[in-house]
Structure formats: C-alpha cells, structure tokens
Amino acid sequence: MAASLRELLRAPTGPVSLTDLDPRGKPHAPGDKDATRAAMVADGEQLATLQERLYAEGFRGGRRRVLLVLQGMDTSGKGGVIRHVVGAVNPQGVSIAGFKKPTEAELRHHFLWRVRRQVPEPGMLGVFDRSHYEDVLIGRVRALAAPEVIEKRYAEINRFEQQQTDAGVTIVKCFLHISHWEQKERLLARLDDHAKQWKFEPGDIDERALWPEYQRAYETAVERTNTDVAPWYVIPSDRKWYRNWAIGRILRETLEDLDPRLPEPTYDVEEQRLRLLDEGNSH
Amino acid sequence: MAASLRELLRAPTGPVSLTDLDPRGKPHAPGDKDATRAAMVADGEQLATLQERLYAEGFRGGRRRVLLVLQGMDTSGKGGVIRHVVGAVNPQGVSIAGFKKPTEAELRHHFLWRVRRQVPEPGMLGVFDRSHYEDVLIGRVRALAAPEVIEKRYAEINRFEQQQTDAGVTIVKCFLHISHWEQKERLLARLDDHAKQWKFEPGDIDERALWPEYQRAYETAVERTNTDVAPWYVIPSDRKWYRNWAIGRILRETLEDLDPRLPEPTYDVEEQRLRLLDEGNSH
Q1: Which pLDDT value is given to residue B280?
Q2: pLDDT value of residue A3
Q3: CA distances (Å), origin B258, targets B50, B51, B52
Q4: I need a labelling partner for A37 at 20 to 30 A (CA). Which of A153, A199, B135, B235 fits?
Q5: In a 3-state reduction of DSSP, which class is residue B98?
Q6: Biggest CA pair distance of chain A
C-alpha cells in the first residue's frame, strides 16, 4: 500500500461532515475479519517492541512519549481499543487516564487542570479515555459553560497541545466513528447480557437522543483542532476488528516515525563484566 | 492439591531465614516449564475475568481493590511479573506505580506520603514495583535515616497497611527470592545483550556487594510486617516460569476469595429495551 494509514484516515482539513465518512468502511484493511485480526496481533508485537525502546529512552533521560486520545460516542469502543490494542504493550510502559464527569474539586479549576496532571511521563504510551475534548462536546451540547467560554476553549486546546508537543509528547487523536444504528445495536446488546448490564445507564439513551447535536459538536471540534502537531483521525468503528486494527496500525506508524533507539551504555561494558566475574563467590 | 499456594508460600511467622528457603524450588508447579506456562495462561484468563468483575463493582460504588507489592533484589523479575502476569489483565483495570529513589520533594515528606498517593482506586488491580519497603531495605542497609527512625517504620507500615485494608484494599506482598549466583548470571546477561544494557548501572554491582546486608534487611522486614491483613509470600524466583506462575496463581486465589460480583442493574432492563426499540429511526 502506498499511503500510510495515517494519511488515509486523517480528518479532512476545512469543514468536516461526518455523514460523508462511512463508519462501516474498512480502508486498507489487510483482509477479512480473521486476516485483519492476525495482522493486528503482528502489529501489536511490533508496537510492544517499539514502546519498549521508547521506555528505555525515557528511562535514560529522553523526553519523548506518545499520547493516544480516544473520543467517541458511548459504545464506540474506547474500552475495546484499550483492551485489545493497548493491551499488547507491556503495562509498565502504559499510563491510562479516564476522564469522567468532573468532580466538584475539578470544576473549581480551569478545564485543562485535571488534564495536565495526566499527561504521560517520558517514555510512556499514555491513553486518554475521553479527554479535554469533553469540555467542547458534552460541554457544548449540554451548555455546561457559557457559549463564549466554550468558544475560547478550541484555541486553548490548540495551545495546550502545542505546549505538550514542544515538551516531547506526540499526540494522536482518534475519533471512533460509529453509526446511529450501530449504537442502538450495541446498547441493546448491553441490555441483553448480564455481563454488560453494569455498563449501561438510562442516561445513555438521553444522550443518544442528542445524537445530531453531538455529531455537530464533534465536527466543530475536529475542524478547529485538527492541527499538524496534534492531528485527528476518524476511525470507521462500526466493525470492531477494523477499528482495533486501524488504531494499532496508526500507533505503530507513529512509533516507527519516532524511531526510538535503545540508549547506548554510559559505562564500559567489558570493565563491568570483569568486575562481576572477578568477585569472590564468598556468599 | 490440598493447600492453596498462598498457604504454601506464605512467609513463616517468627524468625525468617532466607537461606532456608530455596530460590530454585518449584512447589506445586503444575508440571515442567511448558506445562507451567500453559497453566499460567489459563490462570491469566481467569484473573482477567475476575478483575473485570472487580472493576465493575468499583465502577458502581464498590470500595474493594487489590494491591500487589513486588519486592526483590535487582534482576529478581519485578518487571517480568508485570509484563507476563499483570499483562494478562485488561490495562484499564490496572494501575502501576514504580518507586525509585525519592526525589528532593518526596524526601521533604513522611516516607509514606508518596505511597499513599499511589494506592489503587476501587475496582483496580494496583501494582507497586518496589514500595514503602525500600525505606526499611536500602534505607536500613545504606543508613539513609537514623536507626531509631527506621526502627519506627515497621510499625508505621503495619498501621498504614491496616488502614488500607480497612478501606477495602487487599494487600498481597511478594518477595521475589533469587540466589546470589542467579543474580550474577542475570547481570552478565544484561551486559551481554544490547537490548538489555540500558537496564544496567555500575551501581548495581555496588548494591550486590551488600547482598548479605540486604538479605538480613529483607528477613527483618518480612518478620516484622508479615501480618494476616497484609501477608508476605516468598516466591522462589530463580526460575522465571515458576515465579510468574506462582504470582499469577496467588493473585487468582486472592481474587477468587474476594469473589467480586457483577453489579445488578439499578434500572428496569425491559423498560430501557423498549425505550430503545420505540425510538424513531429519524436520524
């Protein structure tokens, strides 16, 4: 394949119309469901190797790290991506932050306050399960702040993301794009399975009733924050296997670009080997 | 097998002599290396299922959580346990905290200050990669605090662990017991492999020279903090496959004892299903 998956799934610059982007698509999928899953496992191993190098770099003073931002409507599969894609990486190198409804304490701060505290440390693959974008999504749809306050946030987000990039963070933002119909199927599946019923809340259906408003809020957010330093990818997510493969591949491409290298030893290897070999076996 | 692995590997009450505990042992191993690894995979799947239930419980207001404390000499395999055992669990339900040399800021606080901040949230499987025990291990061997200060810490640790237990934390403390000889082999292996050289520091050999002092410090720590609420397990760790299986099995037994249950829905399932089915397909 000629183009990278990142080029292919990068959100359009300029006006964004989500209805023009097919949530059931599978561009560049390496094959059917089984073949794609197999490719995802192979990508996962490569990702684990690359992340280990990034971790080593961070351990020895490097500043680079990756932040995967996951956004999407309820049931779009943020949790599934964490389990199946991020789960392929050594958990020691992963830090996951979930952003639920802000607490009273968090609400007394600027909306980016709680986000800054969760930016991954050097060497880590950080994941945001929801993020600062909630403050221009539900924040906008539910009018949780004055319109002019929300309006200002897009620029604040771009500034924040630029700062993080300057500090060594590579930001990858994925919108998990599902159809209105698919969400209904998945909510019904949650209701039908006791093992999933705990994930459901009646309020999920109230949010679903605002689907068009949320889609518009996503379009606006993507339009206004789809920068080159922190690009948005729109991931067709009606097919879970495609969604997982695509995000794994985008992460792999991102890490390959970073090309982290194992640090060279700052000590004399032979000298240290002799120190070990020469010690008495007295204990 | 009659006894649980927890009973079998529980550190002795009363005086502890690590030289009497075989680091190459493999008590209750389900078979040879391959069979034991296969058993570990099966335990890992069970562990993932149980942890998901614990997570669900925490998501719906439960307070319970598990904290795995990993301690052991350099190269004893703390990182390997995280990768191979903890890696079997959905990363969304895992929180890992590493305790390195304290920073200047941390040193201005009580030694438990930085530890309290990392206690896992309800529903989580927390892992401490090193822990507050460093303050009675390297703290003691390197005399990083006055003897009477260190002496007081054992009781402070027991009190802290009791508090956490009261708050819903089940604490599992594992000492990864390796032989002096095995450590040498592993340090040499690090020096021989470019992919591992970054993990080595010349100071590791200086610490190794204090092996008997560290073993005594471990014996004292285990003797004085091996409480029923926060028991110590001594894990024979010269064989990596045994070590991984044993800790996975101990975690599995611990979660099975907790017996986390999927929360019952607090809504009327049928009513919500009808709400979904009755909505117009207008979007």
Answers
A1: 66
A2: 76
A3: 9, 10, 13
A4: A199
A5: strand
A6: 75
Instruction: Tell me how far apart the alpha carbons of residues A163 and A73 are, in angstroms, rounded to a whole number.
Output: 27
| pLDDT above 50 (res B198) | yes
CB atoms within 10 A of CB A9: 25
Do residues A86 and B91 touch, judged by C-beta distance below 8 A? Answer: yes
More confident residue, A84 or B280: A84
Q: Which 3-state string (H, E, C) describes B159-225?
A: HHHHHHHHCCEEEEEEEEECCHHHHHHHHHHHHHCHHHHCCCCHHHHHHHCCHHHHHHHHHHHHHHH
Element (H or E) spanning B57, and its range? helix B33-59
CB contact under 8 A, B262 and A197: yes
**End-to-end CA, chain A:** 59
For residue B90, the SS3 value is coil
Task: Check residue A124 and give its pLDDT.
Answer: 98
CA dihedral B65, B71, B74, B78 (to 10 degrees): -30
Interface-testing mutation among B90, B182, B206, B273, with chain A (most A C-beta atoms within 10 A): B90
Alpha carbons within 13 angstroms on the beta-carbon side of residue B119 total: 20
Distances (CA, A) of B86 to A17, B45, B63, B79, B117: 41, 11, 21, 10, 21
pLDDT tier at B282 (50, 70, 90 boundaries)? Answer: very low
Q: Please, what are the domains in chain B?
A: 5-262 (3.40.50.300)
Q: How far is CA A108 from the centre of its chain?
A: 26
Nearest by Cα to A96 from A128, A123, A64, A121: A128
Determine whether the interchain pair A198/B276 forms a contact, defined as Cβ–Cβ distance below 8 Å: no
The dihedrals phi and psi of B102, each to the nearest 5 degrees, come to -65, 145
Instruction: Inspect the interface and report whether the beta carbons of B201 and A267 lie closer than 8 Å.
Output: yes
Give B6's DSSP letter. Answer: H
Instruction: Reply yes or no on whether the pLDDT at A282 is more than 60.
Output: no
Which member of A82, A91, A198 has the closest CB to residue B60? A198
Question: Does residue A283 surpass a pLDDT of 60?
Answer: no
B187: contact with A, CB 8 A cutoff:
yes
* Three-class secondary structure of residue B42 per DSSP: helix
Query: For residues A86 and A67, what is the distance between their CA atoms, to the nearest angstrom?
Result: 12
Contacts of B263 in chain A (CB under 8 A): 198
A187 in reach of chain B (CB within 8 A):
yes
Cα three-residue angle B236-B238-B239, rounded to 5 degrees: 90
Chain A touched by B197 (CB under 8 Å): yes
Report chain A residues whose CB lies below 8 A from the CB of B201: 267
